[in-house]
């Protein structure tokens, strides 16, 4: 996939996941804990939560494609740093995928336990799933933010792409870097998502990109 198409795909996926999460997932997440009909709420929330999870998995996949396309066109393959960036991308994507998959089971487990277990047990299971999912996601966001910022700065240093094109991506990466400290607070991630979407728009709106010159070190 060409870099411009990859940026468009990544931008659309991120916007879809972000808008859906803000409008659907977060209100459901907060309201489902206190409801007069917990089992019905859990069943309804399950499908909403599942759809949101699949949208974020699509976003992670499109992010990998974007970085891969960018590195394929502009990063010299022979460098150790290029190979390290590829490895970090795979590791961070794996952590993010696992974190999303764990989080997707939150309401499914609640739906199974409602009516069969004490309220305290149900709440404890939900809290445990949340804790595990957030821990894995924080690790993935940390590494993903690092590699995204690294690639943006690297391509600027190599004079492959303009600084103004890479700034939004670097901002998104730096903000994601602080996730292990700030989660479950998500305001920094909302700004990171906005910066990431701006980055995708900046790249995706182009009809052509600078030529990649052989820049052997």
TrEMBL record:
Q: What domain of life is recorded for the organism?
A: Bacteria
Q: Where are the transmembrane segments?
A: 54-74, 86-108, 128-153, 165-183, 189-209
Q: Which UniProt keywords apply?
A: Membrane, Transmembrane, Transmembrane helix
Q: What is this protein called?
A: DUF4386 family protein
Q: Name its species.
A: Caldilineaceae bacterium SB0675_bin_29
